[in-house]
Specification:
Radius of gyration: 20 Å
Number of strands: 0
Distance between the termini: 35 Å
Number of helices: 12
Shape: globular
Amino acid sequence: MTALTSRMGRLRWTFIDGLTLVGRELGRVRQEPGEIVGALLFPAIVVVLFGYVLGSAIQVPGGGDYREYLMPGLFSMITFTALQGVMARTAADAARGVMDRFRSMPMARLAVPFGQTGADSLIGLPLLAIMVSTGLLVGWQPHHGLIPTAEAFGLMLLLRYALGWVGVYVGLVVKNEQMVAQVVVPLFLPFTMLSNSFVPTDGMPGWLRFLADWNPVSALTAASRELFGNPGAPSGDVAWPLAHPATTVLLWSAVLLAVFVPLSLRAYMRRGR
């Protein structure tokens, strides 16, 4: 009984400290209006650029409106911005000695990475809302009702949270804000583009199609199209992740959390040695 009480006390301590650091991260974002404006404008610009400029030259497999085909892919793209945001903020804190200060304070060790990932999940909500509003304005809409729509957005938020832990770990390991911005972040752009977000993977060379089909971006996009009832949902003889996209997203999220939560905590603890 005493051991259980002690564990519950530590869990409560971690949760309270984590919420405090979530508030810190949100306060820091509010102090950077340029970053907020850029983040809110980016989804709308991407919708216009891909939906109108490039969409006129792309045929949707099986027919249908390209902008309805595109929106789930853009939702997935926004989901993966968790990586670059958390990486940059974590690397900045590490480079400026903020992490060392946190370590010297009487706070739960898991609270610091929890604060980074929790804040990013909240930051992702208005970005997703802007993207949804823009999509509705250009003609996108979900067709399968409230519950499947909620499930699709739930998958996005879950994977975004898991990716946030990847960002924490990379930020702690790199320890250099400029390197994250100039080297690491650009490396993730091809990763998000190499998927079924913008074009079908059928026309890709075999080796490239294999990489695209097993990309978690493709799984999230395919699951969203299926749940929203948008054109381009997987059918026929496709790779396993695209045949079971929702399950694949859940598996990816579980694996990322199982691997990067302990790695992030270990990297955070080692920085003080």
